[in-house]
Write the structure tokens for this entry.
Amino acid sequence: MLLNLTAVYGLRAMAVLAELEPGESINADQLSERTGVPRQYLSKVMRKLVVARLVRGQRGRGGGFALQRPRSKIRLADVLAALDLEMKAGCAFDFEACDVHNPCTLHPIWSRLQESLATWTTKTTMADLGAAPKRGAPAVASRRTGTRRRSD
Amino acid sequence: MLLNLTAVYGLRAMAVLAELEPGESINADQLSERTGVPRQYLSKVMRKLVVARLVRGQRGRGGGFALQRPRSKIRLADVLAALDLEMKAGCAFDFEACDVHNPCTLHPIWSRLQESLATWTTKTTMADLGAAPKRGAPAVASRRTGTRRRSD
DNA sequence: CTTTTTCTGGATCTACTTATCCAGTTATAA
DNA sequence: TTATAACTGGATAAGTAGATCCAGAAAAAG
């Protein structure tokens, strides 16, 4: 997987939030239901998005989560950054002092790759994602952790 | 980082091996020295490359590691696969049943991204890497435990 | 055959990610 | 003000990647 699970969870949640009507919100239980993300862990992920001011977390009756800004103002890069995903990354060999003037072997092609990635994530917004994937048809991947057993 | 540390270590090692004269080999101590990869962990990484038949691991006096095939016959994709890095990966939302006929929201752009990655890693061989980065000038990133940020 | 070199492989340790538990806080409605 | 809904946040557990330790096993040299 190109992204870690936390990032994937966050993306799923954001995709659902992006579908809500303006003013509408969704609580953690329903969000967990719709995204297939474990309820408690989802809360932790959502917190990151709230702290990053991408999402509003409203407590109390009728509360829940909603986007802070219009979809079109939330870039994929913002979301990934909020989820601690370094998209700028570094040298393919993880050499610190690697740069244009002192390039490692992979530097030219690697930096081009990363730039196109960076460009893409800053150009793409939540509005570009269209509808969030529905549960049911595209089933949530079962994340076999070793102890998981299919129930009979 | 786009790659995990094990993959980075493996790449560094392969880059060094690719520089050896035909018939020459290098032992784990020297390889650790040159790549900045912890000696013992390097052995584990090298084992994966040996098992994948990219590298020959010769025991006893004068033994060490060397490429099994000419550099030009070892693709980046082979190396990454040997190091358990899934380059094909899956859907951005980690939905299992996501495909062309039942695509998730990110599917079109995500799959294009992954394909260009896959194409690149199968077209690039160890011969294309040129010389391995030298230690000293492009210094090895110091791996102080607190400072580090992990992500793919 | 013994010694030395060097890779192999199991066991263990640590840090980080993912997951769960549960008590707290805030907001709404009656 | 009370009850209830719902997010917040600390503590903790489980799982995996990264790292280390150390006892083999194999190959070469003497």
